[in-house]
Amino acid sequence: MSDPYFISGKLAALITPQQRQVQWFGAPGAPEAELNALEARLQIMLPPSYRAFLQASNGFGPLDRFIWRLKPSAEVDWLVKTEADLVEMWEIDVETVPSVPDEEYFIYGAEQNKIQVRGEYFRGLLMVSDWGDAGFLALNPDVQHQGEWEAWHFAHWIPGAARYRSFAELIKAHLAAYRAMKSGAK
Length: 186
What we know:
With 186 residues, the chain is of the alpha+beta class.
């Protein structure tokens, strides 16, 4: 899962010579037929910001030092299909632990309590990244904000998940964190 080489901060090893040459970590965008095939396979329409992302870059990485690769559309799948054991482990307490009330759950940003995730959503998450440095990204179609799906960042240092209103909001947060880290390193 995690390689100590990458944990030590040597993110540069993940960047290919071609990415260096073109100065872009993305892949060519997915054609409409491929996105339609993904939606047919998943049996659901993708949220607008994630679909637009795949149209612009059908795979991307590294995103940052924690998320090494966003999957291309051919590899995107439900978490329960890719990480069934993990979903089963998380669901152990779903029936005995009461769900987080809406007034606590729908708080995003710095005030969010990252411990408060809803276990009943685990089975329906769409895994959109590979495992990186002990973490991954997923989308939750069960919670929508203006047609966008809630986005989750799981990591070993987060007791639950960092949640965002959309894939676009999650990517903006990762970009802001990267810029802050980069400016602090100077």
